[in-house]
Amino acid sequence: MKRGRRWMSAAVAAGMLVPRPAMAHVKWFTEFSFGDEPRTLAQAVGPLFIGLAVLSMAVIAALVFVDQRLEKVPAYRRVNDWLAARRGDSVLVMRIGVGAALLLSWQADALLAPELRAAAGWIGWFQFACAFLLLFARTVPAAGAGLILLYLIGLGRFGVFHMLDYLLYAGAGWYLLTSGAKGERLRGTGIPALYATVGFSLCWVALEKVIYPQWALHVLNEHPQLALGFDLRFFLLGAAFVEFSLGYLLIINLLQRPLALVITLVFFTTTLVFGKVEVIGHTPIHAALVVFLLEGPGTAYRPPIAFHRRMGLRTAFAAVNFALLLAILIVPYAAMAGSLHRQAPARPEPAPAGR
């Protein structure tokens, strides 16, 4: 029993060491423009980047063993069983979280997220209508379809590159849409979709700190205490890898419930620094994380980390695929950022003094 408590306490304590800016969405707290010059892939992938990537792979490989060890702890299994017995509340949690997020966005004249300004008044009322539909169990699938439609509207208005930050809304919409499905296999796709889209959103936003470091550095310069005394650029790149790693762990379903708890606690600490805007943006993520706490990996489909039973193969799967996902995402991210920069209208030169 004491050993089990030590393992769980260590996991939570480690999560509290996650740098707060790692989980803050920089676009909400700085004046950004895709016309700003991004770093090229060659500039971004330097010795420090490679070193942190290798370190992340090593930590993820070690977490595979931690996950296996936790499964053998009686106290941990009892907590898992207690949470699993409350799976029936998962949809209600998501209804409350998404409904609150939609109402907050409606009140702020935003489309789903704080920096996405709604261009037309009807979008706000459509969000209000979707929130209203979440009040009734029979209309929850319709609200899910509405949430997906709102995401598609965002794609058309703000572009794919920007809206990939918020792919989690499409996942939440799918989860709500399929929650009323009669077929277990279709209904069961909601949990994997939620894990994949929330994890992807964290990974994609993490790359922003690598390619557009000037945005996050603006926030750190205003709140230097967040860097804990580290060099700001080193801290920022480390925060990016922390966030990317957490997103990747969600995607492969490693340490599902402990990971959800850790991320939730970290998000709550960022609220103490960044206030109401953070609440508006992170409410649906909090709801998804509570769903992960209740559901674990889900029951309809085998999670990716369980594809291999042998510990050696599972460890290699987790570490190697981290590197693959990092490469697969950073290449198009840098290319799209460069393309947007080249397409942006040139900023006017300041007038010479005295004219």
Task: Tell me about this structure.
Keywords: Membrane, Signal, Transmembrane, Transmembrane helix. The chain crosses the membrane at residues 48-66, 87-106, 118-136, 143-160, 232-252, 259-277, 313-335. The chain has 355 residues and is mainly α. Helices cover 70% and strands 0% of the residues. The protein has helices at residues 2-16, 41-44, 47-71, 74-84, 90-107, 121-133, 140-158, 160-163, 167-178, 184-187, 190-211, 213-222, 232-252, 256-274, 276-295, 311-343. Helix 3 packs antiparallel against helix 16 (311-343), helix 7 runs antiparallel to helix 9 and helix 13 packs across helix 16 (311-343). It is globular and about 50 Å long.
Tell me the distance between the termini: 78 Å
Profile the largest sheet: none
Q: Averaged pLDDT, please?
A: 85
Assembly state: single chain
The class by helix and strand makeup works out as mainly alpha
Question: How many H/I helices?
Answer: 16
Number of domains: 1
- Tell me the strand percentage band: under 5%
Could you name the ranges where pLDDT drops below 50 across 5 or more consecutive residues? 1-23, 348-355
Give me the count of strands.
0
Radius of gyration: 21 Å
Helix percentage: over 70%
Shape: globular
Q: Would you list the SSEs in sequence order as H and E?
A: HHHHHHHHHHHHHHHH
Condensed summary:
This protein is mainly alpha-helical and 355 residues long.
